[in-house]
Every structure is written in structure tokens, then in C-alpha cells.
Ferrochelatase
Amino acid sequence: MNTPASPLQPAVVLVNLGTPDAPTPKAVRRYLAEFLHDHRVVALTRWLWCPILHFVILPFRSPRVAKLYAGVWMDGGSPLAVHTARLADAVQREMPEARVVHAMRYGNPSLRTVLQQLRDAGHPRVQVLPLYPQYSTTTTASVGDVVTAVFGDSGVARMRDDYHVDPDWVEAVADSIRAHWDVHGRGERLLFSFHGIPQRLADAGDPYPLQCWAGCDAIVRALGLHEDEALLTFQSRFGREPWLQPYTDETLKALGGEGVRDIDVVCPGFAVDCLETLEEIALQNAEIFHEHGGRRLRYIPCLNDAPAHAQALAALVRRDLAERA
Ligand SMILES: C=CC1=C(C)c2cc3[nH]c(cc4nc(cc5[nH]c(cc1n2)c(C)c5CCC(=O)O)C(CCC(=O)O)=C4C)c(C)c3C=C
Ligand SMILES: [Fe+2]
Ligand SMILES: [Fe+2]
């Protein structure tokens, strides 16, 4: 937290998922252990899940995933950490009237610690914005758990649930796609790839897939695309059960086989670039597309700390704070 503290100001906390502190098996293991112990992420009973996690997933996944992180690591750290910090700085510049900080649900800076510091500093209003445009019990609700644990029902802290069809955000994403087309040219299709969740959770009422569809629809309309020019898929499967479909990798294989040569991919479920966009989409899925006959997969970066992104988020937070004034 690098902004001078003024307890009378409202505080704004931008929360992202979290990421390892280093691209090493040890740091990745520590991060995955915290992440995958969260009941919101894996709800299996602990006597069943803990042996699988401690004896299979953590020992085997950590060294493999550490190599993937090493391939996208930036000078200042993991892309998710660097871009989230820069985004918080950009929102702070848009909101001099508030103290804007960022926190991570897993890893550092720890959400619990950041919230405790803000509570102890006596900020009268704390507005929490999870950097997930679409609500999911696996992500947004987990942030809510920590907010409730720290602030209880004091009324000091409030959290926004989603912003998947916020007009400023939709326009910022659409503008970033247009700007990318202006510089790099336009592929035959625009594929929207969102992080998946288990299908079981959607069946139980998690609104996440509906919000992905609604947001995608709004962006497609803002771009004036025909329905058959855009596709929506889900990436980042984890475990063996069915996740939301269609899957991104399977769709790219099929498109390559159908003779589609150039494709653009955008990931509006991710506020900032991270392992899942820079490695899974821009590297792994680009290779899959090539292997199946595609020529070029152009990845359109996340909004990151673009001024339009910071302005859209600042406007959301300002509205949320005004409702409580
Ligand atoms: C954008 C929203 C996200 C949802 C919904 C989500 C659900 C979800 N994720 C896992 C398992 C993993 N996700 C991992 C990385 C990761 N996930 C998100 C976002 C969402 N996850 C982001 C932004 C990232 C990247 C973090 C980074 O450091 O860059 C990982 C770690 C990487 C790996 O081991 O593959 C796992 C594991 C589950 C199980 C889940 C819902 C049940
Ligand atoms: Fe455990
Ligand atoms: Fe994830």
C-alpha cells in the first residue's frame, strides 16, 4: 500500500485471484496449496481431497506449472501481480478522493491482511471490487468470505458482485478489440475465451456462464458483428469432471480442421493478463491451432492498466460509494 493514509477517505480495494511469488516449484506449491484448500474452489470433503492434493496434485503439478510461469515471468514478478498493481495505480490516479489499493485472494498482498490494515486505520467506508467481471461462487463469493470475516456486519465494507454488462467496461473491451484490429488486421473469427468452472456448479445455479454469455453478447453488439463471426468457449479445465463447454482447445482444433486460417482470441473474463492468457492462450492454444491447420492465432491482450479500463472501474466504484454516502 503505497498511498499516504488518510483515515477519513474511503478506501477502495481491487482484488485479484493471486499468483506465486516466484516461478519456482516451492513458491507455486505454496500458492496452489492455499488456492486449492479453499472450499469455494474445491468443495470435496477434506478426508478425500487432502490426500489427493498433498500426495498427487501439489508434488506433480507444482514443478510443471512453475516452468510455465517462468516462461511468462516479467521483471517485476508474475504478470498477474505486475498488471494488477499497475491497474490499482491507474485507478488511484482516476480517484484522488479515495485511497486505492490492491490485494490478492491467495498469496500476496494478502486480502485478509490488507483489509485488517484498512479496518485498523479507521476508514469509514471500504469498497471492495473483485476484478472478476462475471460473478462466480468459486471466485467472487470467496472474496466475499474474507470481507465478511474481517468486517462482519459493521457496514463499513461493501463488495460489488459483478460488472459483466457495465456499458463503460463493454465499450473499453470493444475499443481494445477495434484498436488491435487497426494495428494487426482482423482474423476470420473472433473467439471469446473465458475461464471455465465445473458444469456441476452451473447446474447448481452459479450464474457465471450466463454472465459470460451476456457480456459477450454486449461486446459483439458494440462491435456490430454478426453472430456467426464470434464464438464463446471456456478454457483452463482442472480435474476430470466435465467443465463448461465448448472447450477452447477443442474448438480451435475443429476450426483449424474446417479451414479457418486466421483467428483472433480475446479473454474478457480476465481483467489483466496472467498465466491463463499469456501461456495457455497465446502460446499453448496458438500451437494447437497451428497443429490443426490454422495459420495465425492473434491474442488480443486484456485491458490491463489501459486508461479506459481504469476509468470504467473508477466510475463503477464511485457509483457504489455514492449509493452509500
Ligand atoms: C477468471 C475467473 C476464474 C475462475 C472462475 C476460476 C475458477 C477456477 N480455477 C481453478 C483452478 C486454477 N486456476 C488457476 C489459475 C488462474 N485462474 C484464474 C481465474 C479464474 N479461476 C486466473 C486469473 C488464474 C491465473 C493466475 C496466475 O498466476 O496468473 C490455477 C493455477 C495455474 C495452474 O495450476 O494451472 C488453477 C489450479 C479452479 C479449480 C476453478 C473453479 C472451480
Ligand atoms: Fe490439506
Ligand atoms: Fe482458475
In short: The first helix runs from residue 25 to 36. The chain has a mean pLDDT of 97.
